[in-house]
Amino acid sequence: MTCPDELTLWSLVSGGLDEDALASLDAHLDACAECRELVGVLASGQRPVPDLDVPVGTRPIGAALGRFVLESLLGRGAMGEVYAARDPELGRTVALKVLHSLSDAPDGNARLLREAQAMARLTHPNVIQVYEVGSDGGDAYVVMERAATNLRAWQAQRPTAREVLRAYDEAAAGLEAAHAHGVVHRDFKPENVLLSDDGLAKVADFGLAGELRGASHALDEPVTTLTCTGALLGTPAYMAPEQLRGEPASPATDQFAWCVCVWEALTGARPFEGRTLRELRESIERGVPHDRALAHPLVSVLARGLQPLPANRYPDMTALRAALRAADPERASQRRRVVLGWAASALVLAASVALVVLRTLPAPAPAPDPCEATAAQLDAHAARARAALGAALPATSRTLRSQLEAQLAAFHRAQLAELDRVCAARGAGPSRAAFAAQLTCLEAQADAAARLPPNGSPRIAESLADAVDALPDPRRCDTGGHTSTPALEAVARGLGQARARLAAGAAPLALIAVEAAAADAESADDEATSARVEVVRAQVLRALDRFEEADGAARRALVAAERADAPWERADAWLELLAIAGSRGDYERAAREAELAEAAVARLESPALRETYLHRRGLARAHLGQLAEARADLEQALALRSARLGEEAVQLASLHASLGHVERMDAHLPVAQTHHERALALDAPFGPDHPRHANHLHNIAGVLRLMGQAIQARALYEEALSIRRRALGDMHTDVALSHNSLGLVDADAGDWDAARAHWETALRLFTTAGHADAALAERNLALAALAQGDPARSLAHALAALRSDEARAGPDAQAVAADLLAVARALLAQGRRAEATARATRALEIARTHRDDALSTAARQLLTAATPAATQPHPARTTPARRPPATTPLVPPVRREGAYGGGEVWE
Question: What's the CATH number for 687-865?
Answer without folding.
Answer: 1.25.40.10
